[in-house]
Design goal:
The strands form two sheets. The protein has a three-stranded antiparallel beta sheet. A two-stranded antiparallel ribbon has the order 1-2. The chain starts with a helix and ends in a 29-residue tail after the last helix. It has nine helices and five strands. The longest helix has 23 residues. It is mainly alpha-helical and about 270 residues long.
């Protein structure tokens, strides 16, 4: 019985951590089936900007988290501009806020990942032990760069992913559900989040937010290989959030405890109860 209650508690925390992605997909669905007075992508941009402001006003997100999420937006937009240019996918329909085939709202799909990470960090009381910031950041940058360079040189995502696994082999993430403390390998959390992002991508393409070349005429399931791509992108997303969290107690919230422990020793706050 306790296990079932814990599963329900875990599910509820995940749901409330996904408020921004949930509202984003609601906007995608409504804009697909409801006639709008302006272009769909223009309306979605205004909608996402409004969501971001609302989350800050009602204090669902702090200004630091909004800044991190804005960083996600820029990183994602840069990737979108390149991928659309080389024909990896396309955005149907015209819009005033569309640049080089990419609507500016597209960056918010990456920002939604950032919002989830920030929300989950707080709601699950996340702590990360034995994090290696420099090496993890290097591999995250390599992952991002490979999404561009594999157009001209061999795709190196597998060796990069293996290298990242080596770097993260002793890194654990601790989280709280109810009265119980749990832990899992950080690399495993990347894979799990990547899987659910792949599912979300299927919904996004079904709602015609964007299309892969084989989905232009008729919708098809997004290729499972994208699951691995999303798992790798999550690592880059995590680095952005962890960079801020590792400075807690020093950069801001003086007297607080950093939620990212970069030393090899586990603090008492990082110990799991079960």
């Amino acid at each position: 019985m306790f296990g079932c209650l814990q599963f329900l508690r875990f599910g509820w925390l995940e749901v409330v951590s996904c408020l921004f992605p949930g509202f984003l997909f609601a906007g995608l669905a409504i804009s697909k089936y409801v006639h709008l007075p302006i272009a769909r992508y223009d309306a979605l941009l205004i909608y996402c900007l409004g969501l971001t402001l609302l989350f800050w006003v009602v204090r669902l997100e702090t200004w630091r988290e909004v800044a991190v999420i804005f960083g996600f937006h820029l990183v994602g937009l840069g990737l979108e501009l390149f991928k659309v240019r080389v024909g990896s996918w396309q955005y149907p329909g015209d819009a005033v806020t569309k640049i080089a085939g990419v609507p500016l709202f597209a960056g918010f799909m990456y920002a939604a990942v950032g919002s989830y990470l920030c929300q989950a960090w707080r709601r699950f009381d996340l702590r990360v032990s034995n994090y290696r910031p420099v090496l993890t950041t290097i591999f995250a940058v390599l992952i991002y760069a490979n999404f561009f360079t594999h157009q001209w040189i061999p795709d190196l995502r597998i060796p990069i992913a293996l290298g990242l696994l080596v770097v993260l082999r002793r890194t654990w993430v601790f989280f709280t559900v109810g009265v119980r403390r749990y832990r899992m390998p950080l690399a495993l959390s990347f894979a799990l989040i990547g899987f659910f992002l792949w599912i979300a991508e299927n919904f996004g393409t079904f709602l015609d937010a964007w299309n892969y070349p084989d989905q232009v005429s008729v919708w098809r399931l997004v290729h499972p290989s994208k699951f691995g791509a999303w798992s790798l992108l999550v690592s880059m997303s995590f680095v952005l959030v962890a960079s801020v969290k590792s400075l807690e107690g020093r950069l801001y919230h003086r007297g607080g405890t950093a939620t990212v422990e970069t030393s090899p020793q586990h603090g008492n706050a990082n110990q799991a109860d079960g």
